[in-house]
User: What shape does this take?
Amino acid sequence: MRTAVQAGAPFDPSTSERRFVLLGNDLLEAVALPRLVPILAREAPRAAVQVDRADADFVKRLEWGTADMAFVPEFLVPPSLRQLRLPDERFVILMREGHPAASRRLTLERYLELGHVLIAPHGMPGSLVDRALEAVGRRRRVVAQVQHFVTVPFLLAASDLVVTCPATVAALAAPFGLRATRPPVELGLDRASAVWHERAHDDPGHRWLRAQLVKAVDAPPVFRKA
Assistant: This one.
């Protein structure tokens, strides 16, 4: 019913009180929202944005119209959804400044000797990193598994653990003064997309939201190292 009412309805950002529902993780909340919210405040001061977790049912939520857009890894995008590719990101290894491993080149052997943090937003074991290591017959030691990206800087600053993560996390962790280095195993690029259902594609409000998303993606990072 929500989708049917909104589809094709006129949309004036200056007066609309529409609430846009986005599905994602805490990285979306911490990095994308600080870019998107100021745009909404200028152009749609009465509109609102709500972020819910992108769980396994994200496709159904887009189909049902209970969410406007989801931000997910590209490999999870089914052909039935429209998508906007987000900028590719490289992977980095983060550790605290003064970490014993920071003074030497991080070889694969040294990397595997370290204790690792695994970020698993859906709470499931395994990751792109573990699959890459399995491909060369190796395995790392995961000491801590967490569901939230924003937890990681606190863990790293208080321990000798390391994390392998998208470079955006390094920007988020800039206030912690962490050190970033390249992984000693080939991981490719982190590819993600913003996706939505076909029924929402021509909705004026949704078209406007997508335009603001493009502006937000092109905006400079909010988190910078001093």
The chain has a mean pLDDT of 89.
